[in-house]
């Protein structure tokens, strides 16, 4: 029976009858010794998974260092009470959303990380019905539940990963939690937004952490009321904008003393970009705090008002259009004008010789790379120079060292080749991993670049070379093995190198650059989609917005481009030119993503004017094969790169993608301990998609701000 | 823009790498065969409009990469598919054995009532045959789906296979449309009843209508 109860509830959720917060805990109705405890259904106000219990009362000894979920739960029976609850993981049911996940999962590069990546409510994670069966009843005993009113304060420590709750009675430590995934920012923010806590005065002087006072029930109500008046917003927003509001009112609002504002306005605790996730971005009135956060630097506000001012000068039709594209305009305005970039001549033999020392060392390799990036390499030099670009030869090696190195590498290659050549029938039949890889290679070698002279015709001996190198690569890196697309990457290299050993080591160098493209879970590809999406958002807002509005912003249609570095999009000669340019890793390692942005740049008008939907875009992109102008594409890509680089207000996540030094956090929000920005960025797959406040978010927040403004105005008039 | 077709069916070709999915599609859409084919990377689709019982049916046929590594991508495309061609190579035992994995994949990712069909391709290579026709038939019976042996190279049964799949989907769709109309009619009645409850009769609750809603959402995958 209990089973059916739960089933029904799940169904209701799917039908959208119950909102998530209404799903709560069914407490046993018998009073007994626990009559102090709340009864009935609790509303979960905020929750976070992957929280380790670090310190608590001795009765919870067995749960120490166990991962669980921390929640704030509201019970209305016998009377309204708020409880802080923590329960270990094994009593948590993860709602099965695998079928409903419309798209791919978000990038998750942290190995071993489970599905409990929940930032408040983001992943449908819900506690099970406690008490609905024997096991859960058991789990109920393991829940640590504390009345919020019994607690005095919350401290945030260790870069936001530790939450400490202090008792009211003696101000001693009541319990301590460690947030395994990400940090406690969201949880704290959620509590702040719902006015359960406010940042306390003492934290400003506190030692390296935030401190919040826990508000009692009466205080909570008061703060909420003030918050709903949005006074802080009214004040913040009127000042920088041209006044369309009666002067008197502005004056009046300006005189509202700060003390009526919730203190959350006065001081925004350290905000990490990653904390901006879906949960916060839903259109709830609580969002005003973010407006404040972005507005506090004044940059978002002023740039927006500037663009408004400009559009006001134009004809009504124009300005309407521009209002629709307000964001595009803003972004375009933010990026400096695109400069013309021209490709130069390829690295010639005479020039190459000039860089060589008598002993064979190559001077100024950075200069050479730059020349190659600008113009490529003359065909006759490719075989030699590629060996350097692909990290097979070292620039600093002398002629003798190079010969020695080649000998070494040759021996190493044949040793690995001998391994698979020696594989007996019996071994092979007992080794499915090897067999599968071999079988896939055989299938693909037959259909790789067969239209190229080098691989054409039946029984072409070069096919055996291609196969031999791929098989040897399987022995070199068995875990990666062979994945479709690799033969595409090897074929042009083999064609240039001809020699099996040289081709193999050059291929190894290339694979070192792109191996994440072939990840078993495709994580590398997903990361690149996310990065490309962000680049497009900044560099080509009209197309980005169009794609967002047509469910095409997932960038899936660029899959083939990125997987084999445009091998299928250009003719062989252009592929060689493109690859040697990309192998220089100039001007940044992600330049291949900018090539995508550049191609899309050229297709922008076609896609938008013809009103392409996702399938049309995919078809169009797939059919671009053979029609893309490489020279123009590379020039555009570099021009876009220079545009981004020259932009002053470039968000840090974009800087990260294009390899620019990150900006320090905004003044006043500097982390107390000089933490490494890099790790803060890479510890959470979310960052890739959610880092910083995107212009879109800024715009939405601006809209919310205006809405709150008007609402407050309305209230004032009443 | 005027609609040039009565129905749009989204079909999917799946099966192990190298069984000839792209060739089958090429044969059906262009009526041609090319021996220097290349492996499919990512996903692509082709369009062909056919006519069945005086209805124009636009077939949008999606071609996927076969290697297991890419399933995380290809499964994203399963969702909207109304028909799936499961392809194996009669000269490759392994590709036949893997059909059950592909079926499982469909069950996990596609709509439950997606129309399926099994194709044993490369039937022109009888001398290299590893999978008998009977085994193919048997497997199809097990899964309750239709089966054909095809040859993209020799142009055997490719056209027939797609027409069969399309006509099965069409039949199902049209049956559903009738049901849907009946349902709409019933719902009108129910709503009418809810607004003007008959005297003494039971009051219709909102939840009952909602239950019907879920039924609607299940059957309106048109």
TrEMBL record, chain A:
Annotated region (Disordered), positions in chain: 263-283, 295-321
GO cellular component, one term: cytoplasm
Biased composition (Low complexity): 295-307
Record's subcellular location: Cytoplasm
Endpoints of the signal sequence: none
Keyword presence, Acetylation: yes
Residue stretches making up the Rab-GAP TBC domain: 376-586
Keyword Acetylation part of the UniProt annotation: yes
Molecular-function GO terms, alphabetical: GTPase activator activity
Pfam families xrefs: RabGAP-TBC (PF00566)
Keywords from the UniProt entry: Acetylation, Cytoplasm, GTPase activation, Phosphoprotein
Assembly notes: Interacts with non-phosphorylated form of RAB8A; phosphorylation of RAB8A at 'Thr-72' disrupts this interaction. Interacts with ARMC12.
PANTHER family named in the record: LD27216P (PTHR22957:SF645), TBC1 DOMAIN FAMILY MEMBER GTPASE-ACTIVATING PROTEIN (PTHR22957)
Function: Acts as a GTPase activating protein for RAB7A. Does not act on RAB4, RAB5 or RAB6.
Protein name as it appears in the record: TBC1 domain family member 15
Species, as recorded: Drosophila rubida
From TrEMBL, chain B:
Topology with respect to the bilayer: Lipid-anchor
GO cellular component: cytoplasm; endomembrane system
Keyword Lipid metabolism in record: no
Keyword presence, Cell division: no
One matching Pfam family: Ras
SUPFAM superfamilies reported in the protein's UniProt record: P-loop containing nucleoside triphosphate hydrolases
Gene3D superfamilies (UniProt xref): P-loop containing nucleotide triphosphate hydrolases (3.40.50.300)
Major site of localization recorded for this protein: membrane
Keyword entries, A-Z: GTP-binding, Lipoprotein, Membrane, Nucleotide-binding, Prenylation
One function term, GO molecular function aspect: GTP binding
SMART domains (UniProt xref): ARF (SM00177), RAB (SM00175), RAN (SM00176), RAS (SM00173), RHO (SM00174)
Highest taxon of the lineage: Eukaryota
Localisation: Endomembrane system
Protein family per UniProt: Belongs to the small GTPase superfamily. Rab family.
NCBIfam families noted in UniProt: small_GTP
Name of the protein described by the UniProt record: Ras-related protein Rab-8A
Organism of this sequence: Drosophila rubida
